[in-house]
Structures are given as structure tokens and as C-alpha cells.
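If you are new to this repository, start here. Below is one unmodified record pulled from the training split, so you can see the exact layout before writing a loader.
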Amino acid sequence: MATSTSVETALSQLTEKPAYFADCCAAISRPLIHTIIHLLPPPPTCVLSIGSGSGLLEAMILQVTAGHQVELFGVEVPSCVNKFLPEQHVLRVPSTTSLHSDAILAQTLLFVYPRKVSLIEDYLKTFRTGMLAQVIWYGQKNDWPEANDLLSLFFHRVCVIDTVGVADHELLAMASKTVNGKSATGTPHKRDMSPG
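And here is the target side for that same chain:
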């Protein structure tokens, strides 16, 4: 597993423009990290990143939100090497179609480049009666229509997040349970989680 210094080094290399890192399939930028953080419910909050891979994006989010009561866990199969997330933030599932039971406690599910929309559907069908208030989706624009159709079946509000720092062929979106512009828990969707 990589040390926190490796994550700090990667964070220091972020700019306003999206860039690719060897250990992450998605382009990452400073605005993207901060936008995802701003979309999370107010702390304390629990986030599960389904299919976290090397854990680079997730570790960056943890680093930026340190001290703000954001519990973020990566869910991944044993054969996938976690290089960046602290081990206590990694949850293992036996296969790529398996669900992790801790999702019942998560307010947010994060899907970055999900391989199958059916996995998203399985999580939503199984855990929609838990704490789940929103899904954040980040992936190829070409994959969004199918995900959009699915999320619209489970959430009151599905929207594309218009933000800088996302590659032209990628898209960031959020689905949430809303009542009068607020989440199902009565809290605003966005909040300031800037470090310091």
C-alpha cells in the first residue's frame, strides 16, 4: 500500500485541468475533488466508493476532508491491489457482482467508471431502505444515458453537475432523494468542506 506521502504528492500535482494518473481510469483535477466533496451530505457522513480500484481518487478525497468527519470506504475485490487507501478504509467483496452489507449505513454511494449498470441497480434495490440519500456517478459520457435511466427510477432528482475540471469525454452526475430542494434528511445538498 502506498503511503500518505504518495497521496500528498499526487494532490500537489493536481491543477485546474483534468489529468490522468497511472493508477486511476478517471481524469482528476482540483475542481473535481472539491466538487465531489461539496456534493456530500454534511458531516458526519459515510461514503462507499463501489469499485475503488487503486483507491487514488478516494484517498485524495479523504486527505482533503481530514478532520471533517467524512468516513469514506472503498469496496473492491481481493485481486485488485489497493495502493492508496488506508487498509481500514478498504472493504472487500468476493466478486465484482457482490454487494457489501455496509452499504446499508452509507448516505452516499460513489460509482467511478462502473463496469456494469446492473451493479448499481443491485445496490439500489438492496439498500434503498437504509441511510442512502444519494449516488454520485463519474464516468464516460457515452455510458451516462443508461445510468441516468436507472437512477431516475430510484431518485427524485438526477442531474449532471456542471463543473470545470472534468475531461470533455467524461461526466459527473448526482442522483438524490429530495423534498423541496433539500435531501431526504432535510439538509442542503452542498456544504463547504474546504480544508483549513
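Two things worth knowing about this chain: The first helix runs from residue 4 to 12. The chain is about 25% helix and 20% strand.
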